[in-house]
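Reviewer 2 asked us to include a model.

Predict the structure of this chain.
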Amino acid sequence: MKLTTRLTLTTAALATAAVATLSGATAATAGQAAAQPAHIGVEVPAALKVPDGNRLTGVYSAEGVQTYTCADGAWKLLEPAATLWARNDRSHRPVALHSRGPVWVSTRDGSAVNATAVANSPKAGTIPELLLRSTATRGEGTFADVSYIQRLGTHGGVAPTTACAGTDQTAVPYSATYVFYKPAK
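Predicted model (structure tokens):
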């Protein structure tokens, strides 16, 4: 798919996602107790608990797209693209951008964190909730020294179930809450 078409799909999907509202809480899946502080605004499955020795440093709402590409007749995740804002900011001023890596980059201070998924908690009809461990950080500021990230309260973003062909790509709107932790000092 040409870059201009891909950018058009991503821009359209981001605009669609921006219109959607982010739910403030999700119900815990049966058998999974909330294992993290209640003040983050969403319940955390026990499988996604951050190890002791880490402290909560940021809770951000996010809206964007999960972009899928056709691989051997099936949809495969290519990359996420999302904008994050402070959970309590009704104006949704961007504080970070999320993209392939996965990586989160602060729009305020340029700091960044890369991570890899270490646990997931499937949810019906939406992309799974995740626990990610930092693999690298850069810069000083928001994402300096981040150790863990949780993707919680997910809505949407699921790959199409229809067949695909060639180099087709599609962008599916999603929303989530991203919770960041740093080592306790």
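The helical segments are 3-19. Confidence is low (pLDDT under 50) at residues 1-36. We have added this to the supplementary material.
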